[in-house]
């Protein structure tokens, strides 16, 4: 048994309620900082690419002797009724999600060999690097490379922090879900607000460096760990997060003694491939509804949302799109914070309703029968509610229904569901965008 001197972080709070609040807040900040880089990087990369495109247009105008406005108008003109952009936003989405999907597919099989402390340091370094690369980029490929770094950080962070939650009371999943929900809204408003007051994208991205630092401080300074938590060493009993020495600590932290496992409930030794296949098979009922929800959700966001444009109203096309994104993120925040109030076990219901949303809006784009933008606002908000609720309820019931021995592996593996759905939605957005823009 490892002595207390070898454990970097020990429980110092005698008040169990204070420890629970610290852990809840710690996971909230981890969720916020982990997902905020993903949200901000998407917008920031588009801004920088747009600036580089403008620079290229200016160069072309200088070489041809034509006004830059004429050249730019020639590049972007189209006869479509949908006011289409040259390239679907699904293109940038793919650059932001494919590395995450790749790491989520492979990492759960080997990530247990890397201690949690090193995982967090790697995520923070990747996030810092992404902001710096995109901020100082002078070429398109450098910006894309920065987006890839942000994607790797977010993907590894999500599966690591979901796995980390099994060392604590299940209440921390509420904090994680709420934090990840807040990331979209906070990231969009924070980035847009700084740009609105006159800061350049480069300066704004440099300010965003504070968030990876906040992740580091939250993980190492705010969370209260079990006495034998393997911070800098490999878990000797793979996916068996606590031992008998931690039993009293967990019982003090938990209001539900069923969350605490006894030594008899666990079998020592690493999971075999047969056991891992058994766990993966059991996760199918959770992963496919999550993937379907996120496919329909991001098909709307990246394939249809930019085409839902109402003419002759106060809001411009850009304003409408901005409000769509804001209301979507608000819905995600509300539903990801709802786990403390109610849980919904029938996860397939979220998939069905989100698919209905996608099909309805697909026909709305094609036949343009919606009478008002306010109706679209309500549908987009409802879309965010469904996506956020599907996420938090999926991982809540995975944590609840898996045995202690399998829980850490299950939480890491199931995180592939949302990324798989998002990647497929990004691919589907291309033909849909091209079809409507050709009308």
Topology, element by element:
Elements: H1 16-64, H2 68-76, H3 90-110, H4 116-135, H5 140-164, H6 172-196, H7 201-207, H8 210-222, H9 247-253, H10 273-304, H11 317-336, H12 348-367, H13 373-401, H14 404-414, H15 416-437
Helix pairs in contact: 1-2, 1-4, 1-5, 1-6, 1-8, 3-5, 3-15, 4-5, 4-7, 4-8, 5-14, 6-11, 6-13, 10-12, 10-13, 10-14, 10-15, 11-13, 12-13
Q: Output the CATH class name.
A: Mainly Alpha
Query: What fold name goes in the CATH topology slot?
Result: Growth Hormone, Chain: A
Helix content: over 70%
Number of strands: 0
Average pLDDT, all residues = 79
Distance between the termini: 69 Å
> Which percent range describes the beta-strand content?
under 5%
Q: How does the major sheet shape up? A: none
Tell me the domain tally.
1
Number of H/I helices: 15
> Which structural category do the helix and sheet elements fall into?
mainly alpha
Globally, the shape reads globular
Radius of gyration: 23 Å
Flag low-confidence runs.
Answer: 1-14, 68-77, 237-244, 256-267
Tell me what the CATH architecture is. Answer: Up-down Bundle
**Quick one: CATH superfamily?**
MFS general substrate transporter like domains
